[in-house]
UniProtKB/TrEMBL annotation, chain A:
Gene Ontology CC terms, in alphabetical order: mitochondrial large ribosomal subunit
PANTHER family xref list: 39S RIBOSOMAL PROTEIN L28, MITOCHONDRIAL, LARGE RIBOSOMAL SUBUNIT PROTEIN BL28M
Superkingdom, natural source: Eukaryota
Residues in the signal sequence: none
Record-stated family: Belongs to the bacterial ribosomal protein bL28 family.
Single GO term (MF): structural constituent of ribosome
Source organism of the structure: Sitophilus oryzae
Official protein name in the record: Large ribosomal subunit protein bL28m
InterPro entries: Ribosomal_bL28 (IPR026569), Ribosomal_bL28/bL31-like_sf (IPR034704)
Ribosomal protein recorded as keyword: yes
Keywords: Ribonucleoprotein, Ribosomal protein
UniProt keyword Ribonucleoprotein present: yes
Automatic annotation (TrEMBL), chain B:
Family of the protein in this entry: Belongs to the bacterial ribosomal protein bL9 family.
Gene Ontology CC: one annotated term: ribosome
Highest taxon of source: Eukaryota
Protein name (Swiss-Prot/TrEMBL): Large ribosomal subunit protein bL9m
A GO MF term: structural constituent of ribosome
Species name: Sitophilus oryzae (Rice weevil)
Amino acid sequence: MSSKAVKSVKGLGIFKKQGLFDKGVGALLPEAYKKFYKEWRLTEPTAVHYIPEEGKWKRDELTGEVIPIQNIPLPLSYPKEHNNHLWGGEAVVQGFQIRDKFRRRVPHFWVPVLKRSVVHTEVLNKFFSVIVTDRTIRLINSNYGFDHYLLKTPACDLKSLLALSLKRKILKELDAGCPLYKNQPEIQSRLLNKYGKYLEAYTSEEIDWYGYSYTEACNRIQKQMEEGEKKVPLKYIYRAELIDKLRAAKLEEAMSQSLKSSQSGLDATWLRKMNPFGKKRET
Amino acid sequence: MWKNATFLLKTASKEVPSLCGTPFLQQVRTTYILKRRFPTQLHKKGGQPKKLRSRHYVYDLVKDTTTEKQPNIDVILTDFVEGYGNAGEKISVNSQFAYNNLLVPGLAVYASPENIEKYKDQIEALADKQTYSSANAALTLKTLSRMTLSVVMNKDHPWTLQPWHIKTSFRKCGYVVPEDAIALPEKSITGPNMDSEGKEFYVIVTINNTEKVNVRCRLHHWSTEIVDRIPYVDKFWENPTEPIYSEFTDVLQTIPPKITKLKD
């Protein structure tokens, strides 16, 4: 209790910048999505483009001075196309090369080698033609299959929206008990045995919210809310209010009318009385 | 097969936004491991890392993984693969080859601990499928059964056909066949006999003491005297002929004919 108070007191007078999930539609996003977002964007991915030094300290070879080891990752960039590919953790590195002792540094982009190949998911029972890197294939091989690779690898290493949405589809399929193999119970049970262990890390809601980009998630929740609330036209509300008032005044006609806005016979009875093919009224 | 996975996702659920644009083009395309030439400044324990300066973006290439040799991986074959092995066999092949030609087409599975356990029992079940004495046996069998062997015998001196004649004829075509692997038909062929010139017979070759294959042969006569020689026939295997003895007809008909050019 006391620590909480101290915290709140300490926070006084300090302007806290609003984050993605503090304002607007982002604030409405469920905890399940925030968990995924943390795994995707706020976790340090595995070092692909540099070899991290091990240990806490190292000694300078010449002077014997002790220096702490601090691994600062290389800044990486991801072109928007990478969301349609599977790069397996690789990225574009922008930097400089010094090609000669007496030359000025030269800007350089290190871009992964991309090639089109085929991946096969056992759970979805589908072959996909996708653009991959050699590293992706190597990771698939070392994980004994594409499904294992997707399910084992955290979102920060999969990175691309294609991989993440495939992972969500696979997780959903497994969570539903592989309805695709309804007619082959042997394969169904084998798949659930093989991949069922990966479901332990997620709840159904987390699976439902897995692998969406921030904008996609915002759009989704907005759509959900719009569908959730039913809009009742104001005329029904006013009509019900009026009948209420008339009833209070104990008018006979009002007693027979229903109060509910939805049952307000207006649309049904009024339309039924209409006869478009009847005699034309003289005006 | 789906042309593109993005197409599937777009049509199926419209979850991935359309992210098409100009391709990211660069002159050099390599997979690389880099190292900073100038180390970054140290930051305080538990503090924020210091701002990177321009010199911290100067990188040296440590290793380029695309130019390295691909490591071999172990796979278990689920079917007979020509030149690689029988079903249930564990082989070590280049990882890229294994992925493209064995794993994706479903001819093999990864040699994971579960699969090794699983296929231990299945080897016996798979044994009733056709197996071969070695990985190359099937290929040899196919090649031998499709060839027409030219057996050239003497026109002047009498002879009876022996396995070593066939061995020599094979050697002339570039096949090394041991003598004990060759068996001749029961009815012996003798000569010189100009009636059997250009006519067919067969020999039986045994591969690795297991697989037996009938090889189509054609008899030719040859003389050391240039005047006595029979004129040269170009592409003799394309000319229709008949067996030396009518007893050979049944066997010769089972051997697939040699096809050098496809008919229109």
